[in-house]
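May I ask for a single protein's sequence together with how it folds?
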Amino acid sequence: MHAVSLNHPSPGTDQASSDIVLAFSGGLDTSFCVPYLKERGWNVHTVFADTGGVDATERAAIEQRAAELGVASHVTIDGGPAIWSGFVRPFVQAGEAYQGQYPLLVSDRYLIVDAALQRCRELCTNAIAHGCTGMGNDQVRFDLAVKASGTYRIVAPIREIQKQHTQTRAYEQAYLEERGFAVNERQKHYTINENLLGVTMSGGEIDRWEVPGDGARGWCAPRSEWPAETLRITLRFEHGEAVAIDDEAMPGHAMLSRLN
């Protein structure tokens, strides 16, 4: 766990009752949540649970984003080992796939909740926030996981603004830019979630049921950019579990990250 103290207390509020932990990714939705919560009296502490979808450069960018947004503290949790042992391994061993097609990669939401609740306990607060919309299943995963873990106050800013604004992403972008926070061009169009098991994307033409453009690609390149030569690797298994790539032994989560 890597903690970064940024020390921006909310004026005129009692710290014990105004601290809130935000599950943070640095994207448009969770970036919007920071000033939105601060302007409503919350002392915002962010937690990023790295479940294997970003590299060191992206992790540093997420920490920097939290700092420029003025959070009280930011913590990065290494969730790679947990998603490997708690989800990847049992999914593969059971031969299970979501709707018979692919592993349920958004299972990492439960690990994100665990990380955020641990931070709540450290700060002695029962307030937790997330950036889920009111449209998909992630809000259910977050809310039920939190409620199953104890008595907490859940704040969901994106759901709140959806009651008044139909063009939610445009509203979030304008809200941030009016306060001097730049928005990444890609984040203007898409919500992107990455972990060891894959990538999910929404927004833009995807939500309009149109053919996704090249900007909607995650880890995949267009066919014109595919390599001309086949890459061959060797995996070594012990007791049914992969333990090495090309004779280089490494933990399972590190192996899957390299393969991705």
In short: Confidence is low (pLDDT under 50) at residues 1-15. The radius of gyration is 19 Å.
